[in-house]
Design goal:
Blueprint (H helix, E strand, L loop, with lengths): L1 H6 L9 H13 L2 H28 L3 H14 L4 H14 L2 H14 L4 H13 L3 H8 L8 H7 L3 H14 L2 H21 L1 H10 L2 H12 L5 H11 L1
Helix pairs in contact: 3-4, 4-5, 5-6, 5-7, 6-7, 7-8, 7-10, 10-11, 10-14, 11-14
Pfam families: NatA_aux_su (PF12569)
InterPro entries: NatA_aux_su (IPR021183), TPR-like_helical_dom_sf (IPR011990)
Keywords: Membrane, Repeat, TPR repeat, Transmembrane, Transmembrane helix
């Protein structure tokens, strides 16, 4: 078998102690390692197929079936963070935003260095109208100082849109409008920044990139974030 054959090479052919360790084990137990390796691959594939089926049920609106299946998957392999994220999404679709945010935070605590999971948790908290907690969680990956301004300076539009929607649901129209207008300000800055590139592109003869930029500016205000911000501000 390939796995055992590779590891049965001389220890001198392995560049690290880890490979030498596996070399000694394979020489002792032989092709049983190939069987174990295939079992691991089979287990991982079965888990991923199960998650795919769970998402299928969720997409079809069968949240009860999806929740029962995801609970079985978590019970079987409780260390996979993606399972908790999927369950959080299912709970959101089922209408339980608070439980969805709590589960997303549990997934975040399993890997505090993952920016994506942190952002997903913040999004779930904002959907549950937990704005203060969401802001404290979001700033874990920003620079020190005025954290809210850091989010604005980074043009984190998804956060501002979600915050605006949350404030709107809570009846705080002033803060909601402030967040929606902040997104509009980002697009105004993008429009203003383009003027620096007209002479630069012509001077450097980067005409293809220049044409792409002009086309991007033509459809700038048709971007989904701008449209969501405009609709939110008009409301």
């Amino acid at each position: 078998m390939v796995f055992a054959t590779v590891l049965k090479r001389s220890p001198r052919q392995h560049s690290c102690g880890f490979c030498s360790y596996w070399h000694r084990l394979v020489c002792k137990f032989g092709d049983y390692f190939d069987i174990a390796f295939l079992v691991i691959l089979f287990h991982q594939n079965i888990l991923m197929v199960t998650v795919f089926c769970i998402q299928h049920y969720d997409r079809r609106g069968q949240c009860d079936i999806a929740l029962s299946k995801i609970d079985e998957a978590i019970k079987h392999t409780p260390t996979v963070i993606d399972l908790y994220s999927v369950k959080s999404r299912i709970l959101k679709h089922a209408g339980d935003a608070v439980a969805s945010a709590a589960l997303a935070d549990e997934a975040r605590c399993m890997d505090l260095a993952d920016r994506y999971i942190n952002s997903d948790c913040v999004k779930r908290m904002l959907q549950a109208d937990q704005v203060a907690l969401a802001e404290k969680t979001a700033v874990l990956f920003t620079k020190d100082g005025d954290q809210h301004n850091n989010l604005h300076d980074m043009q984190c539009m998804w956060y501002e849109l979600a915050s605006g929607e949350s404030y709107f649901r809570q009846g705080d129209l002033g803060r909601a409008l402030k967040n929606f207008l902040a997104v509009e300000k980002h697009y105004a800055d993008i429009t203003e920044d383009q003027f620096d590139f007209h002479s630069y592109c012509l001077r450097k003869m980067t005409l293809r990139a220049y044409v792409d930029m002009l086309r991007f500016q033509d459809r700038l205000h048709s971007e989904p974030y701008f449209q969501k911000a405009a609709i939110g501000a008009i409301r």
